[in-house]
Predict the structure.
Amino acid sequence: MHEMMVAQSLLAQISDEASKQKAKPVLAKISCGKLNALNDEILSFAFDAIAKDTLCQGVKLEIEHKPLQAKCKTCNHVFEIEFSKPQCEKCNGQEFELLPDAPLILEEIEFQTG
Amino acid sequence: MKKINIGKKILSENEKCAIENKSLLTKQKKLCLNMISSPGSGKTTILVRTITELNNKIKIGVIEGDIQTDIDAQRIRATKAPAFQINTEGACHLSAAQISRGLKNLPVNDLDLIIIENVGNLVCPSAFELGETGKVVVLSVAEGDDKPAKYPGIFAKSKTLLINKIDMLASDGQVDFDIERVKSDASRLNKAIEIFPISAKTGQGMADWYDWLIRNVKQSRMQT
């Protein structure tokens, strides 16, 4: 349940921006890498729970999961890694190097206008 | 609808605090390891044996993370090493701010190595930087040899893997565990990971782990 800490940080950042914009936030777009092990449902559940009765009540979270890439040591091909079948999609090589995972980012907030 | 681009790291507060911890530790030339595993893999037993057997060589302090109780801190203190207990009251991982509090409560100046024993959990702690020099993942043989494949995150991020309780791999096959599978799965996720099969109970394999610790303590001392 590390989603709770993510939800708390998210709530603080969206609230800050809402005070700056003097507008009601309705949607927050988030992106994260595969190794963040973030579960969408749990994050939304945690966020809804702590956003209740705040300016952020009702804000929807849209979470984009960025693939984790690896570079094949045999043929240098860069591919999206599947942990259930960790091998190069081109040459089936089993030796590869994981490329850095995408960090957890608050990309964009949408506010109500008028 | 008005769209505002933010592009900010969500865990930036934790990250900021982790960077502060790291710079404090680097300035004082200390090695700091974040130890992560499932509950019951033997982290505390490994620490107790390590502290006792390295007593004359390196001074170790421990930050203990548990949901409840100070049982682990008491076990560490029985070795005469300093330990600071953090109870997370339900949270499944330690955060950088808690480590900052831990560092203030340990005699860091007198220590060579600070070990953070994270809350028993293979998933959540791997997502939070604490300011450590590196992560040590512990896997005990009773947990099964499929863990690197099933929990890739922590194995991809760790500096070292300790495979504990190898005394259970007795010749009568008490536990089915293919150690070579773990080594190859973990190395595939992380080519730099150093792997030490150990038994903190019998002491088997511990000497290589100690050498690794001593080497890394020396490296931290030399850092500029």
